[in-house]
Structure formats: C-alpha cells, structure tokens
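Sequence in, structure out. Go.
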Amino acid sequence: MKKQQGVTLLGMALGCAVLIFVVVGGLKVVPAYIEYFTVKKAVVAVAQSNGRGTVGEIRQAFEKRAAIDSIDVIGAKDLEITKEGNDVVVSVSYPKRVPLFGNVSLIIDFVASSNG
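Output:
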C-alpha cells in the first residue's frame, strides 16, 4: 500500500473530547454574558433617562428596570453614580462564578458603565 493518510481512531476520540469540553464550557458561560449585557443595557438606559435626577431617583429607576428585566445578580445599592462634566455616569462591577464541573469553577469579573 502506498503512504496512508488520515486520522486515527485515538486522534479522533481526543479531538471529539476536546470539542465536547469546549462546547460544554461555552454553554455554561454564555448565560453569564447574556446576564451581563442585560445589566449593561439597564445601566445605560437608567443613566440616559434619569441624567438630571438625584442619586435616589436613579437607584429607584434601576430597581424598577431590574424587576422588569429579572436582574438579580446586582441591586440598586451596587451602582456607582458619579458626575463627569454635565453627564451622570452609572457604573457597576461584579464577579460571576460559573461552575464548570466537579469542584472547578470559572470566575468572571464584569464591569458595566453608561459612558462606554
């Protein structure tokens, strides 16, 4: 026989195992990012709609928005509200622990801000 080329059974099994590991990890991490984008959208919306409001009004508006969007990872007390020039900047940072398998977890630090 001439020179044979191809993937061995062991190589295919290892490749499939790595692919399954990546897919399962991705399926567990994606909900954390969806939650982050929901938080970011709420922070930006609150900052834009209540740009002239007081700190209490901004926190109250976020609580209402969080109730509608089912945001439970942070609360209104976790918001950092500052003023840059004439603009109100609302930001928040929080860690998210994603259990992967067994006693192995992934911790992701998210930071969302209304100014970018």
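Check: The first strand starts at residue 80 and ends at 84. The longest helix spans residues 9-49.
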